Amino acid sequence: MKTYDWIVVGGGITGAALSYELAKVGLTVLLVEQDASPQNATRYSYGGIAYWSGTDAVTRQLYAEGISRHRILSQELETNTQFRELDLLLTIDLDEDPHWAIAFYSKFAIQPQLLSVAEACALEPLLNPAAIAGALTVKHGNVRPEIITSAYIRAFMRAGGHKQIEQVTGLLSQNRRITGITSNSQQYCSSNVVICAGADSRTLLQAAGMPVKLYFTHAELIEIPACDVQMRSQVMPAKMKWFDLEAESSTAAKEQLWHEPDREISPPIIDAGAVQFIDGSLRLGQLSRAISNPNAKIDAAKSEAAIRASIGRILPELANLSGKWHHCLVAFGCDRLPLIGTIPSYENIHVFSGFSSPFATVPALAPRFARWAIGQDDEVINQLLIKRR
């Protein structure tokens, strides 16, 4: 049986990028993904690259490196990732103080510009002027999530990597040293295993007796096929409730709730936003729930109606477009930073998951992790290692 240097579990943007970068530095790598056509957080994301939003030295560095990588990735991966930079409009609700928004966003590396209602509607004519008190705008990166992920995987395989469509059912171990994985059909051996399976990372690691401070939300959106409606920008609310939901749901006081079945950790939220891809298709969202059961039953019709009502207030022309509701799990850490590195008290088992802004940071962090994996010290990786917690 072949023994790999690394097994990467999970074929979303994190696993795909990391597999490629590990192969680039000369390691033998097996990428294991459970679905031939993944229905994960990568698949249903907006593909946004918020390179402007760094708030400290580490995130500013990573976002700057990330956008630089995106500008050359199409050439490097030999696939058009549909990377572009477009105007992001952060809408300010009628009951919100624009001065609050200016103050809040002043901490970011690139500060968005305040627009009046008229200026915001000139930039995005689909906006409902009666629903906003103004907006902020900043240039924002965007890629097609499925395309960039597939491009990473194809480049990985050209570099000598191997991919298996298997469901990982457990970890092989000798005492506290991980030696590979078990799947629904066989075993695979490796010197190192890294878990990049998003929200499934928590389930897999906890089943192996390795609790980690990794959480997840149930994210819901509506996907609209290509249509005649044309957006000029990406629209998101200035006050993103999603961040508050993550912070509130990962406090020490709520830790025990995550171990109880079907517990609603925090009330659901909706952030009314929309993006249109180059092919004319749209994604509208997003409703987010913090529920401890990853298989919790969601009332799709009720959720879709709530998303459409929220979108209809801000972007009325999009509210009734024919589309399909989708649901996925989105992993996050307890401090808006990812979980990276070796799990304490174990050998050869690592995590690369919990990214709040994966398309902005993963293209920068994956090569750093790969160099760290072959023994090169990295000051950024050192600051993000799990042991910081």
Automatic annotation (TrEMBL):
<dbReference type="InterPro" id="IPR036188">
    <property type="entry name" value="FAD/NAD-bd_sf"/>
</dbReference>
<dbReference type="Pfam" id="PF01266">
    <property type="entry name" value="DAO"/>
</dbReference>
<feature type="domain" description="FAD dependent oxidoreductase">
    <location>
        <begin position="5"/>
        <end position="368"/>
    </location>
</feature>
<keyword id="KW-0560">Oxidoreductase</keyword>
<dbReference type="InterPro" id="IPR006076">
    <property type="entry name" value="FAD-dep_OxRdtase"/>
</dbReference>
<dbReference type="GO" id="GO:0005737">
    <property type="term" value="C:cytoplasm"/>
</dbReference>
<protein>
    <submittedName>
        <fullName>FAD-dependent oxidoreductase</fullName>
    </submittedName>
</protein>
<dbReference type="GO" id="GO:0016491">
    <property type="term" value="F:oxidoreductase activity"/>
</dbReference>
